[in-house]
């Protein structure tokens, strides 16, 4: 089929290739609906340049679980031999990615990753890694994807967002053909071009399939068009085509030969008919819709037979006998249950090692469908593996159910050590799900079982879990006692995994007793974990250090822990940790006055109701608190759900968090009785635990609700100062901590001059209820001339910038360099570069100095 109306896209690709080959690599994102001609465009472009650049081509497959790094397996035979070795070992993924980057630097290259909307997590991570470094290479990286299949939660969206922020990336969307183009294509046919265009929407695939059917009219569906073409094939050619459809979108000739025997030569018929296309050293369907139509046409009795033939061929070849994910797929489709049990668990472990935890959970789940054919021990171990991956990917209910079943099997087998070990892990899962009381009971049972047996690493695990549960209750002495017992036992049995996690519990507890000492302790553990590459230990360290720093109002340190942890867990697909960190980051952003960023984070989190309870509580508190401070609707909806979930945990960490937010919301709504009621559950608990910050804030709201102030010598200083009547010192402390709303709240208790400053701070933040309350205070005090209320757009978005960009522009006014800004805001130098470029573009100026001069005259910055 002639390539029409693609001149501008080919020109863009040519320009990108020239730039890449000159030593500044480029990325082209080629998008469009199914059948729009992405493959044809890239094939045409690649054919025109094969003589002067190396072309690497890999495709993502639509399997029930994507093959980890599938496109890289396709490309590997054309690349450095070390890459093949790394793909088939459990080598460090960072080494594999670095080796590929070196390969792309070595010589000019066109690397095509086709159909990345089907990409697995590991492939997305590879593309994100290459995207950040592509300008260091001589490679044009082309990614094709169906943009009409990207829902709001599609994993590809995050990668596209990262890539499009780079000037090295160019989007190349493909539009349907016009009526003029369709008319050109039908000149040799007796078909009405206008009707064909209307029926097909100008989709080149639909048009070509209709034309190829040559039946003199428009088929009722594309299925009919495809089957009309395949009907003209010989019986042998049809048999080969069906086998090819079973193999997948990309078909290795040797595999087709092994699976079909002497009929393999009949593939030439499909090539001549245009159903199959040569693509490098492989064959491919012209479009996946063709393959799906052929696949659907195979009889239900014949299809499993073909899958088993393909499975046998894959197993017999040294090229694919270790491709466990692919083997598991064909084993399942072929009804070979024993083969599923043979390959799926191994494939799951490979996926987990590559960071593709969702795929790993699916593969373990596949094996569990046939677990009745396993011995009880194997069944229990498989359940535990499945539970582990479900837990990491936020499928807590499934994880807990599987872990309970595993514990029951160990009990039936009269293996108390394994039973107790499984119960201890179950306790952590229950805690993450907000079921703290159940977690306490389960782990206590584990401790009792193990203490009746000779000591072992399992007892160290139960002690460590006990330390974590005591920490959740904010029982500091008990948490350290259990943690130190776990550390000693772990050392005796050389259990490095449990030793690391016990140190996390002890170090986190120390934050509440000696914050700086606790940070030093945890920073050392982070460095140790990073040197050993223990992803989950590192993620746990960031999660605990970040969340507890926010709880203790140590926002500067929290910002670093949270930002580093979010980046780390996102890159490795550790969803359960990533959502937890994001929720606490949203809360920190609110206290730091960066409300728009917090709002965006909260919106992202609440679109997914399946993540762990402890993360959802924090996200709901952030949402409720932000809505209350802004005067937005939906405050009680968020905070009522948060209270329900927090009550389920029975933990001061969450009861204190929710109670303080509910008390503040009630006071802003003019309901002091409601504020006092909101503090009842958590206040006594916070005082009993001597929690300086929860006690301070809850005492503050009780005072605002009419209860005489109570000040303890261990109470958080800004709250203690304000309760003692020293609003100046409280405001100064809040300002030093970088909390503008809390600073304004302290100033509002001061004299008329202080209240005017508070009003300006509230107005800048967009805190409408506080603005109105402060204005009423000033009017009641006889102040007639109040500052003019700026427009909301001026308050929230000077020059239409994001809150982060506003912060950076303010620092440009102060004359700070990009490196100094990065240090001040605890973000990377590269991130600052991107923001400064965006600011200059938004202000339509060409220098930092001009931007700073322009900003100084803006009401927002003039009032600071």
What does this structure look like?
The protein is mainly α and about 850 residues long. Helices cover about 70% and strands about 5% of the residues. It is built from 47 helices and 8 strands. It is globular and about 95 Å long.
Write a brief caption for the model.
The chain is mainly α. It is built from 47 helices and 8 strands.
Question: Which helices and strands, and how do they pair?
Answer:
Elements: H1 7-21, E1 26-31, H2 38-49, E2 54-59, H3 70-76, H4 81-87, H5 93-106, E3 109-114, H6 121-133, E4 139-145, H7 156-164, E5 169-173, H8 179-185, H9 193-200, H10 204-213, H11 222-230, H12 235-247, E6 250-251, H13 253-260, H14 267-272, E7 276-279, E8 282-285, H15 288-297, H16 302-316, H17 324-333, H18 337-353, H19 357-368, H20 376-392, H21 396-412, H22 416-432, H23 436-451, H24 457-472, H25 476-492, H26 496-513, H27 515-532, H28 535-551, H29 555-571, H30 575-591, H31 595-606, H32 613-630, H33 635-649, H34 652-668, H35 672-688, H36 692-704, H37 717-723, H38 727-737, H39 740-747, H40 752-765, H41 768-780, H42 792-796, H43 803-813, H44 818-825, H45 829-843, H46 848-856, H47 859-862
Parallel strand pairs: 1-4, 1-5, 2-3, 3-4
Antiparallel strand pairs: 6-8, 7-8
Helix pairs in contact: 4-5, 6-7, 8-9, 10-11, 11-15, 12-13, 12-15, 12-16, 13-16, 16-17, 17-18, 18-19, 19-20, 20-21, 21-22, 22-23, 22-24, 23-24, 24-25, 24-26, 25-26, 26-27, 26-28, 27-28, 28-29, 28-30, 29-30, 30-31, 30-32, 31-32, 32-33, 32-34, 33-34, 34-35, 34-36, 35-36, 36-37, 37-38, 38-39, 39-40, ...
